Write the structure tokens for this entry.
Amino acid sequence: MKRLLIVALLAMGIIATGSAQKSNVSKAKNKALNVESPDFEGAKEAIAAALQDESTKNSVDTWYTAGLVYEKIQDAEYLKEVSGKPADATVKGESAIQSYNYYVKAYDMDFLPNAKGKIKPKYSKKIRTSIKNYYLNMAFLNYGITEFNKKNFPKAIEAFEIHTGVPDLKMFSEDNPFIKDSVYYQIRYYTALAYERSEKVVKAIEIFDQLKDKGYEEVYVNQHLSDLYKAQKDTANYISSLEYGYKRYPKEFFFLGNLINFYIFNGQEQKGIDYLDKAIELDPNNAQYYNVKGSVMETLNRIPEATVAYDKALTLDPNLMEAWNNKGRMVYNEAYKFEDRAVSIRDPKASANLQAAALEKFKEALPYFEKAAELNPTDLDNLRTLRSIYYRLLNVDAKTYQGKYDAINAQIKSL
């Protein structure tokens, strides 16, 4: 008899515990739904216990109630916000996220067969409505923006991913009320930035790659994607992304310029020149292309071709400061070579001839740098080179160049 009594008491204890946990689900709901005086802390404590207990943790009622509790907490902060009262953005955002997670789990459970093998969902419509409202009220998005601005990028990512994941939830698959418009892709863009700033570059690349043809900041997205591949030393994808960008945006020099640089400085000079000639063929009046060709030819020490290209650039655009500077620098470098050789030669007469040739070349370069300075009076590299030429010419004609040297020196000091 004693043994039977103990077993009976244990059974009663199990029933009592299970009952207590079921009552925790009801308690949580009642405390959260109390209009006059909601007890959110009590509701959270009660539902937390129910979610841990074996008798209730696998019940759809428990998970739905958990979602409801945190929805009501979110609602309370939202009402404060819209009525102009102080609201806690963190509590509001975190509660929305927790509510969402519970609801998604409850939705799946709602379609599981019951003890009789039948599927009788009772919460699916309510869950669908709640999540739709979160999306339309931008609960997750606003929280993500707040955390992004605080540089809390992991939390921003979580919020952004939930927001942009809502349109793809299976609960909306048959009758999807959401459109993936420019705002949607803008959020994906900031999600990628958050991943990058969290040093999760592979994930950032994955999202930027998805955005490269979606209409939001496309040029920048493709440029940045190329930069990320380059930083990762992923040469194949770096070149592929540049070629994609060049075909899509032929007038954006970033893609063409980087392709040319890559091929020129990686032993494939002709391929780089071919890209440039192709661009010139498509846009023969683009002075910048000829300027670049001049720079490429100069790098390859094909000076006559560089000269022709720079002159063509200046014919097409007399105000192209870079072309004036580049042409001047090319001549300046020739002068510097004469000067350098003059110092190393022991024969005084030969050295003097080289010095004279150098001065003539410096004079030849001078008007190019002067014009460049006129077009851009704040370019320090150009101004310093111009000053160095004036300084050299002081020894030849101080009367002509002293004033110019003093003026350019003052201009440099003022910047």
